[in-house]
Amino acid sequence: xxxxxxxxxxxxxxxxxxxGCAHGIVMRGFLDAIDxxxxxxxxxxxxxxxxxxxxxxxxxxFCTLHGTHGRAPAFATGLKLARPxxxxxxxxxxGDGLAIGGNHLIHAARRNIDMTVMLxxxxxxxxxxxxxxxxxxxxxxxxxxxxxxxxxxxxxxKLMIGAGASFVARVLAANPIEMSKVIADGVRHPGxxxxxxxxxxxxxxxxxxxxxxxxxxxxxMARRDAGVAVPLSEKKFVEHVPSSPVPTGLxxxxxxxxxxxxxxxxxxxxxx
Amino acid sequence: xxxxxxxxxxxxxxRGALAAGCNFYGGYPITPSSEIAEHMVRMLPDAGGVxxxxxxxxxxxxxxxxxxxxxxxxxxxxxxxxxxxxxxxxGFAVMAEVPCVVxxxxxxxxxxxxxxxxxxxDVMQARxxxxxxxxxxxxxxxSVGEVFDLTVRAxxxxxxxxxxxxxxxxxxxxHTRESVQLPEKVxxxxxxxxxxxxxxxxxxxxxxxxxxxxxxxxxxxxxxVTGLSHDExxxxxxxxxxxxxxxxxxxxxxxxxxxxxxxxxxxxxDDAEVALFAYGIVGRSAREAVLRSRDAGIKAGLIRPxxxxxxxxxxxxxxxAQVDKVIVAxxxxxxxxxxxxxxxxxxxxxxxxxxxxxEPITPSELVGVxxxxxxxxx
Lengths: 272, 378
Hints:
The complex is a heterodimer of chains A (272) and B (378).
Chain A: H1 23-37, E1 44-48, E2 63-66, H2 72-82, E3 87-93, H3 94-100, H4 102-111, E4 115-121, E5 124-125, E6 131-132, H5 156-163, E7 167-172, H6 176-188, E8 193-198, H7 202-208, H8 214-223, E9 253-257
Parallel strand pairs in A: 1-2, 1-3, 3-4, 4-8, 7-8
Antiparallel strand pairs in A: 5-6, 7-9
Chain B: E1 5-8, H1 9-19, E2 24-27, H2 34-43, E3 50-53, H3 57-69, E4 74-78, H4 80-96, E5 100-108, E6 114-118, H5 123-128, E7 137-139, H6 144-161, E8 164-170, H7 171-175, E9 177-180, E10 224-226, H8 240-255, H9 258-261, E11 264-267, E12 274-277, H10 281-295, E13 300-305, E14 307-309, H11 313-322, E15 325-330, H12 337-344, E16 349-354, H13 363-371
Parallel strand pairs in B: 2-3, 2-4, 4-5, 5-8, 7-8, 12-13, 12-15, 15-16
Antiparallel strand pairs in B: 1-9, 5-6, 7-14, 11-13
Helix pairs in contact in B: 1-2, 1-6, 3-4, 10-13, 11-12
C-alpha cells in the first residue's frame, strides 16, 4: 500500500468521523487509487456535498470544494466543463446523492460528463443524527422510523444504469483492495463513472438496529450476511431488525462499462 | 462605438456578458429570460466559452460557481421562480466568495404568477433572499443600452469584490427592442490572483482591500472551498471569533466601497419641489412624467438608482433635502419605499405609487399622481 500522507492535510486532523465509521477506509482507498494512477496532485479536484462522507474532502490535499447539500454533481459539471484538464471527482453520501441530490446525479450520469462519483452508502443520515435515508432498508430502525422503515429503498446502481451512467460499480468498504482498484478503473474510464461504496454507520444504524459496532458491521458486509427483505405484510418485521446494511442479493463489482460520447459542453470543437 | 443596431434587452445582456469576458454560461429555461441563454449558446462557443443547459436553476448556479472556481467568468439568468431556487447558491457564493453574475428578469409573482408580465417584486428578495446576514450588490438598468453597460459592470464588480452580483430588470426591458450603439471596447476588471508560494497560500487571508486573491482550481494552489464558516486556511471552524470576523470582512469588503458601487441618475432635480423615485422600466415612465409635469407647470424631478443594493442612501438623502415630497413608484406593493423613507429621514414627505398587476406604470399615470399630489395606486 502506498504512503498516502502526501495526499493528506494532516494539519486539518483530527477528522470528524466517528470510531468504527468505515468512511476513513474509503478515504484511504481513494487515495490509494489516486496513487496507483499517478495523477498530478494539482490537477485533481474533488467536489462534495453535505454529510459525513462529504466531510472527507476537507482532509485530502487536492483542490476541494465542499458545496451544498446534494449539489456536488452540478458544481462538478461546471468545474469540468470549464477546465477539462482537471480530473474531477465527487464524494457524496446516500442521502446527499440519492435524496436531495438525486436530480443532479441522474443528469450528470445522462450527460456522460467525464467525472467519477463515489457514493458512500451507510444506509442512514449520520451527520444529522440517524434519520432514515432513501437507502434505509425496509424494516430498519432510524430516528425517523422508530417502528421500522415502511418505504422501499433505492438501488443506487440500478438507478445510475437507468440514467445512462457509462461505468457503474459497487464495492464494499470491507474490501479496500478491490475498492481501490475499482475506483482507479472508474477514474480511468472516459465518461461518467459511478461507484457505490457500501460503508457503515455504527453510531446510528448499528446502534438503532442492534447490529454491533464497526468491526461487526464490516464483517457482515464482507460475508454478505444479509437478511433484510422482509415483506411489509408481515407485521413481525417491526421487531425483526436487519442483520446488516447490505441487502440480500447485493451484487458487487463492475456492473456496467460502456464507451459512449462524452459531453464537454456546447463549445467550439477543436479540429481533430 | 459600433453602428446603431436594433436589439432586445435580453440580447444586450448576452452581448454585455461577452464584452465583459464571460466565458461560461449555465442556465435553465424560464420566461422572460430565456433569450439570454439562446443568445449565449450562439455567441459563446465562437468566443471560446462554454454553454450548458442544466437540469434546474439550483444546478445552474452550482455549475456557474464550479466554473468560476475553475477560473471562468460565469453567469446564469433566470426569473422569479428560478431566482427563488438560486437563493441557496447565492448564499454559497457569498460565503465562499466566488465571483459570478446572476440575472433576474422579473415577472409577476408570487409563485408562477404572471410569467409574461413585468414586475419589480423581487427587489427585496435580491437583497435578502438567501438566509443569513450577507451583503448584496444589485444593479437595475432602465434601457436596452443600460442592460449592456450594467451587465459589464456586474462582472467587474463580481470580480473585484469576489461576490455574486445580481442584475435585476423586468420583462419589459428584457423584451423591448431599442436602437443602441454598443461600445466596441469596455473596461474589464479581473479578479486578483495570488502570486506567492503555493505552500504558504492562505485562501481566505485578505489584505487591506478585504478581498482575498483567488486562484483557479488546477493552477497549482491546492485549497479548500466551503460554505461552512471557515478560517483563513479556508477550513471549517465553529470558533465564534473566527466566524464573526469572516462575516464582518465579507460585509465590509463591500460596505467600505459603497461610494464606488452605488449609482443614481438625477434628472431636473435642481429646482424641483417634488421628486419621483423610480428604477428599471418605471424610471423611463417617470422621466417622461417629469417632462410632462413641467409642461403643466409642476416643478418635478427624478432620482433613478441604477444600483439598488447597496441602497444609494446618500444620493436619495441629497435629493430629498431639495424637495417637499418624494413619490416612490414601483411595480410591487411597496418594497423600496421603506428604504427611501429611511434615507429621507423626515426631510421630505414620502408617498408611494404601487401596482403589482402585471401592467407597467405609464407616464400618464405618473403625471396624474404628481398633479394630484402623490400617492395611490393599487
